[in-house]
Amino acid sequence: MNATITKTAITTDDLLSHLQGHRNLTRRTIEAFPEKEFFNHSLGGMRTFAEMIMELLGIAAPGVQEIVSGKSAPLVEHVDHENSKAKMLQLWDEATAQINVLWPQISEARFQENITLFGMYEGTVWSSLFYFIDNEIHHRGQGYVYLRSLGIEPPAFYER
Amino acid sequence: MNATITKTAITTDDLLSHLQGHRNLTRRTIEAFPEKEFFNHSLGGMRTFAEMIMELLGIAAPGVQEIVSGKSAPLVEHVDHENSKAKMLQLWDEATAQINVLWPQISEARFQENITLFGMYEGTVWSSLFYFIDNEIHHRGQGYVYLRSLGIEPPAFYER
Hints:
Two copies of one chain form a homodimer.
Chain A: E1 8-11, H1 12-32, H2 35-40, H3 49-69, H4 85-102, E2 114-117, E3 121-124, H5 125-149
Antiparallel strand pairs in A: 2-3
């Protein structure tokens, strides 16, 4: 990497903080849902927020694991949630802890390498990691509409 | 900047591409709305998508301008849109072009500096730029629910 032509926008440590700040906000969004509506409520024929969260659980920690190990596995978008928000929050927290352990194992050079994540999605490692974050923000924003349509105030977007 | 302790996750050039990819997707989301519903439709007592887009227009180009110039100005979340989607798209494109011109004027060191954007929002330059992107993704995700509730298929999230 040549410092004369490559300027750093964000470091790997800062990106982890950024990602975990978003995970923290998504956790509080899950908490804001009533138990029943988390699993049942939707708008416009879309998925429930529980289904979206299962997708996010399938992507973040398994994705970082694949980036570290180089071993591809299929995307799994369902978990045994036992119809329980507490169980989903437990799985969320486990994924958060797993990402913190794995993250320092991603070398600087790795961020610029190409990867075919889950055997399907081509990109660089950095673009894949941003996809994880962006997809989480996207679905959480949809969860905010679900909450508002239930008359519930979502958590403040700027608090992480 | 010490290369032994600071690892680059994403370069400034890549971050500009990333940001502009999102702006491109948001543009196509605006296009997907019928003229009337863009200005009138909402769910859960929330703002219309047009109002959200005006917020985004107030943030991105003026925010990058402030990062470059160091001169603070209040956040303006309203524009003269003439109740016309075409006018909003024109303002969107002008902002996109303005960001492309301004971006190379942000030095590498500037990304780590502190800023109080619009005289109100404290953070680093990098965290402010990510806020612009994240806030756009957040509201665009809400626009997707509006579109689905109108029976309209939103643009593919992964296409930029």
